[in-house]
Amino acid sequence: MQQALLPVDIDAFLAKRVLGQADLLRRISVSLYKHIHGLPAPNVLLVGNSGTGKTTLMQAIVDLYDAYDDLMRFRVMVIINANTLSAEVEGEDRTTRLFRKLEARARVLFGSALSAKELSDYLENATVCVDEVDKISGRVSEKANVAGITTQYALLTLLEGERFLYRATVVEDGREVETELALDTGKLLFICGGAFEELYDQVYTLVVNRRDDRRLKEVSEVERRPDGSVSVRTVTRFKLRDYLRLADLFTYGMMPQFISRFGSIAMLDDLGKDELRQIFLSAPNSPLRLCLEYFRHMGLELRLTQEAATAIAEAAAKNSRIGARALREIFNGLIAPHEFDPFHSPLLRQTDQGPVLALDLETVTQYLTRMD
Q1: pTM of the predicted model, to two decimals?
Q2: Domain that holds residue 340
Q3: Fewest Cβ atoms nearer than 10 Å: which of 15, 137, 235, 339?
Q4: 3-state secondary structure of 78
């Protein structure tokens, strides 16, 4: 194993791809370090609004495994939606269905001619990312959700580290045979994430109505006026991370046995305008980057002023419940008419370097005003 890859190195790698979640990345980095060194690794439950980086983090872990040759045996990783597991499939239990996906991934990466030892090693050291895990809550609209409860129990079998007999086709002495693999599920690393959208309102109501010992905290803020004078005001702030307790997740519909199998519960912060601006300008899947390539294909250059980028980020920051997805919604709406007919766009300018579409603050402001 590559000894130089310490938790701080893993954190540095992930931080280039996931912005604004420093505490979360430190926790994940420690779990990943333990996982790749064969130590008991705490499974991680991610709680955060849509667009705060849960799926981006999962993809960044894929990139980490791919970037280091020494991590080849850990490259079997699946990102699966919890709803996929909760759906009934005749003749196949949920645990077997999950291992089928892991096996398929192993064969894509390492070929079909795997021995029992090789396949077992790849499956046992896999990473399983379950997205939208909040959708398997045991309660929906105050009624029992049987499919959700069943899926939590299925995952619990794996989270508890039990031996699981898995039937697979392997190669022995040059020929394919069917055998049962006794897989040690305790080596698997689980990273599950969900928005838990109703959890915010659930906890806020508890605190505001004083239904337990939690109370809203008041903080003092200093405000500097344009004339140089200073005022201090007391405000009340509610951040879920400051008030969340495990019992709240039980009330939400997650079984105590299920939640207790996660060694770390990490809250993702809503992204601020600075993080959103950085994502907009530099993330590989940013709508801006995709748009730049689109216009480049037409022989056009899209130029965006710094003020325009900041205005788009500020507008996206106001939509905290959808985070980075707000960037795509705002920018795609703004640029859509210019993508359709760029050569007749009012943004088109002829320069010494060729035709340019110039997107400035005034254009962004006019669009945002119409949106309001």
Answers
A1: 0.79
A2: 273-371
A3: 235
A4: strand
